[in-house]
Amino acid sequence: MRALTVIGNWKMNGSLSINQAWMQSVGEGMQCGMPAGRRFGVCVPFPYLHQCSQLLASSQLLLGAQDVSAHESGAYTGEVSAVMLQEMGVRFAIVGHSERRMQYGEANETIALKAGAALDHEITPIICVGETADERNSGRAIEAVRRQVASQVSTLQDRLVDCLIAYEPIWAIGTGKVASAQMAQDMHRAIRLQLAEFDHDVSAHIGIIYGGSVRADNATELFAMPDIDGGLVGGSSLDAQEFLAICRA
Ligand code: PEP
To answer: Does Zinc appear among the keywords (predicted)?
Structure first.
């Protein structure tokens, strides 16, 4: 869905007391008025889902997880299923973040299965795609991202319309190097055109958000681009006031 969406990704950060203070500040900030028709969420580490679901009970901020298992239940030590997340009130789950692709060897096929499992339980998967610095510098950025998107299309088909795609150039994640608004727009456009080759409805209605060093001082320009439907915000989401400023953008 193309409602403007801003999602925080805390990564492996937080503590019971830090989370409490963050939720209180963001909750109070949001009560002072947020633009209408927008969606806001935060993806927290698994152990904090229960605490955060309680803290968010009367908030417009939606709860998210940072991963989800492709499996329903059974002998999958360390995994967390979509049905468990749903029970915790989770509305979004990041899948295929580049940190998981690179450090845990997650492949496109597994990522699509994870997205499918999330959809089965009314959780919106945030499917991350993006190119490395090498691919960008050698003119292969679009080709690299196309490959990742094509794999999602072939498994998820028209269920893709209920997902969010997060374009996250790997060289921009946690580096402070943000893609220029035009560079991000060009890739979002390329993804939308690729999806239109498959299905015009999916292409017209899917939300494509940008991630990679989004801050309060660059969010307005990025989010104003016609094919950018919001942001996935890592480091800057840890600071409640910075996150609120990005949501207001
Ligand atoms: C992310 O982790 O998804 C991300 C975009 O990180 P950062 O905003 O810190 O670059």
So the answer is: no
* CATH number for position 133: 3.20.20.70
Residue 171: both structure tokens together? 């060289």
Ligand 1, pocket residues at CB < 6 Å: 9, 11, 168, 173-174, 211-214, 232-236
Closest CA to ligand 1's atom 1? 234
Residue positions forming the annotated binding site for substrate: 9-11, 174, 213, 234-235
Q: If DSSP codes are grouped into helix, strand and coil, which group holds residue 8? A: strand
Nearest to 100 by CA among 148, 139, 66: 66
CB atoms within 10 A of CB 84: 17
- DSSP code of residue 76: -
Domain encompassing residue 194: 4-29+37-248
Task: Respond yes or no: is residue 97 known to be catalytic.
Answer: yes
Q: Which amino acid is at 20?
A: Q
What is the number of other CB atoms lying within 10 angstroms of the CB of residue 197?
10
pTM of this prediction exceeds 0.85: yes
* Minimum CA distance residue for ligand 1 atom 3: 234
Catalytic site residue from 106, 168, 188, 242: 168
Q: How far apart, in whole angstroms, are the C-alpha atoms of residue 213 and residue 80?
A: 28
The number of distinct structural domains making up the chain is: 1
pLDDT digits (tens, 9 = 90+) for 186-216: 999 999 999 999 999 999 999 999 999 999 9
Instruction: Say which residues have a Cβ less than 8 Å from residue 148's Cβ, sequence separation at least 6.
Output: 96, 108, 129, 130
Q: How far apart are the C-alpha atoms of 219 and 40, rounded to whole Å?
A: 14
* Ligand 1 centroid distance, CA of 74 (Å): 32
